[in-house]
# Entry
Amino acid sequence: MSLNMRVRLDHSGTIRAERKALRVADATTREIAQYIVEDIRSSWSAQSPSNVGSPPAVDTGNLDSSVKLERTGRDERGRFANAANTAVHFVRIDTTQGSNPGGRGQYAAALEDPDYFNRPYMRPAVERAAEHFGIAYAVNWDSAGGGNNG
# Structure
């Protein structure tokens, strides 16, 4: 006489929990990125040129129109991030794609750089978002392969 036992594990609840967690993570990363975009756009200096250490002022509107929120299949290095369990949103600033580029090229990073124009706008927005949402953060401040990390 043999004794047979069947063990069955129904992990459908775990799968549903994972899917819900991904939806929540996706919504949360979007909310944080949107907060940063809105903070940047509401923090431009009132006078042009702005003071060193202050955000730049809106002159042509190109920088302001260049601030975009994206949910994309690429990570910060441009590699495809196609895993089904990733929640990635970017705040991308590309002044060559703004409303009035005027042949000025990509100057967003130069404005932020304390060793160049020193008109920070992204870093203060990220710091305010971290405080607002009560989160620790790590940001790769590397721009075009050679910036500084904070």
Summary: Residues 13-133 form one domain.
